[in-house]
Amino acid sequence: MSQLPYRPETGCAATALLRGDNLMATAPPARSWLLIECREPWPRQALTALGEYTERVRAACAEIGCRPALIRRYGRSDPTVPRRWGLVDSRPGRESARWGELRSYADLLDVLAGELPGELSDEPAYLICTHGRHDPCCAVQGRPVAATLATAYPERTWECSHVGGDRFAPNLVVLPHGLYYGHFPVLGALDLATRYDKGLVVPEYFRGRGSFSPPVQAAQHFARAAGASYEVNQLNPLAVKAIEPNRWDVTLAGGYAVQVSARLMTIDAALTCGSASPGQARHFELERLVAP
């Protein structure tokens, strides 16, 4: 049987939005990021674009808990402008970004080893997933967002390869904090950027912070829903204790003690455009919250 042609209105992002899939605590783990400017068409498995350096870079990233991603500017690139690499630390209290010129993919091993320090930057970076070969919804939903942000913030904006959660497209990651957003309107991306400049998260589109575990992301969500601060640097985790296989006690800065539990839900639908139905997703629930 031949595969039906892709249609945005029946793609994984549109159907997830229609179902009302929960964004809470869906940010994949990413304590740090290696950003690799690649101007050629991206393969489905993005890192294979590095050719002979693919496995060495993948192993070096895995060793230090770093998430690699391909990046490119929206629209046509100026071939006379050198490519760039970025190394971003998203851990709380250590948020930073260093950038340098990417002469060859061999440089990436020196970057990860700390032998190419680059230049420290205090500018945010906006990563918009447009990785169509991984999932067409990412390209269809992400490119209008990339165009909007690139018009307002050309130096901050990058298209990027797969970041996780195709069904939440458009997906935006705001660095250096590693804030994940999804299912927001195109023009809403400008508000997300403005609020970040003010040190705030926007809870209605917030998937979580990748440098925190999913139980912590869920605990922060419930604390904010109970009236806690929307400030990015508030509610950092002080302690996380697994009391059962799917239940955690999370202590957050500011005096919040939150107990959350998780269960797997079966969804009678494909959760990505390339997967089969049904799918499974983890859903967090609040068990107890003690506020200051």
Structural summary, described in words:
Pfam families: Suc_Fer-like (PF06999). The chain is α+β, with helices and mostly antiparallel strands and 292 residues long. It folds into 2 domains: 32-197, 3-Layer(aba) Sandwich (Glutaredoxin), CATH 3.40.30; 212-290, no CATH class. Helices cover 22% and strands 30% of the residues. The strands form 2 sheets. The chain has a 10-stranded mixed β-sheet with strand order 5-4-3-1-2-7-6-8-9-10. Helix 2 links the parallel strand 1 and strand 2. 40% of the residues are buried. The model has no long low-confidence stretch (mean pLDDT 96).
A few lines on this structure:
With 292 residues, the protein is α+β, with helices and mostly antiparallel strands.
Order of helices and strands: HEHEEEHEEHEEEHEHEEEE
Average the pLDDT over all residues and give the rounded result: 96
Write out the strand line-up for the largest beta sheet, numbering strands in chain order.
5-4-3-1-2-7-6-8-9-10
- Considering DSSP H and I runs of 4 or more, what fraction of the residues is helical? 10-25%
Number of helices: 6
CATH fold description of the largest domain: Glutaredoxin
Could you name the CATH class of the largest domain? Alpha Beta
Major β-sheet annotation: 10 strands, mixed
Class based on secondary structure composition and strand pairing: alpha+beta
What's the number of domains? 2
**At CATH's second level, what is the architecture of the largest domain?**
3-Layer(aba) Sandwich
Q: Unreliable stretches, pLDDT < 50, 5 or more residues?
A: none
The count of DSSP E runs of length 2 or more, i.e. the number of strands, is 14
Computed CA radius of gyration, to the nearest angstrom: 19 Å
Q: What is the 3D shape?
A: globular
